[in-house]
Prior knowledge:
80% of the residues lie in helices and 0% in strands. The protein is mainly alpha-helical.
Amino acid sequence: MAGLVGFLKYVDDRRAVVSQIEKRLLGLQAQYESFFQEVARARETELGQLARLISSQRASLPPEIDRALRAAGADVEREYDERLRELGEKAGTAERAADELRRESIGREQAVHAKNTSLDSREEELKARNAELLDRIRRYNGRIRQLGGGFGFLSNFFAMRGLHKERRAIDHEQADVAAQIEQLRAAWARVEEEHSRTEEALRKKWVERSAEAAALRTKLEYVESSRQRIVTRSTLERVLFQIGAQRPLGGPQDPTCPRCARPNPAGNHFCAYCAQRLGTDRPDFAGSWEEIAEINHHHAVFSEGMRACQEIIGLVRGLGTGLDNFARSVSEMCATQSRYPLPKLQIAVPEASVAWGQNFDLFDRTLTLPEVQHPLELARQARAFIDRTFTESSIKAFFETMGEELSRQAKAQWG
Length: 415
């Protein structure tokens, strides 16, 4: 038995192979994306060329092509009208929502103004009453001082007591009026604060709806003004991008691509491996029609290759994460073994896991074959490994078998 260190070395070795697989796949993905951009540019060029040829030679087009263009054009027109209707409805809905928010804001402003007027009127009434009471208090204070002065104090004693009683009543009423004034001002402050918050929320919603309505109206105006150009372009795309020409891969006797040196049949306009243009562009209708058919095939091929790469890259990254987590667990056991007086754990990687782990090497070698430079071959190989080997159940069994062996041996040897 190799022990924990050997177990960890095995896991690290599998992780290194998985990292190499990911590196190779990322390289292929970048390559396919680069070539795909070339195909897209060539496709755009050929589409423009064919559009000009069709426009100038419409009367002499083959009947089947003319029928296809007319049928597609009718479908595009219907879809375009529906799109215009939807945009108009969305713009109208956004405009009505913005207008409703504006009316709500005006209504709230008027309500607050009415409330303000009412509060102001009540405050003025109270302020006038308060001023009157304060004046009365001053007058009573003066009379009390007069009655209390000199030798008339004793004779005026009972009259002063009555004035003091009346003065206390006036003081109480004045304090009550002052309190009412403060309450009114506090109520108005609350109304103002609530109004400000509500108005800010309404303003924000109004800006959003107005901007949405303006953007939709702008888009609608553009779509309406560009109708003929967009309909013509869409019709051509619908017809021309549906055609495709399956191209066989080249053999040993076929000419090689000047860029990637892979063989291609003599009639190919583009390299099946790297999308390099082979030969000069044909400007005539028949040549352009043939070229765009081939371009559509390459477009589909490289799209398929990129999708396959993305699928297997995601899977490989998941395997890498699983191996990283497992390696940490084994490292922790190694640390425990070193830290405490425990016997060296005698353990080996289960044979079933070792056997399944060889699939990493097999897939890595597959990615070095010249054939996988072609996107369809890569897609075939990747999907075969996913469907046949890298299944969820088999990956789970690979990790669980090793984990169960670690637990079993640790329990048996360490107690």
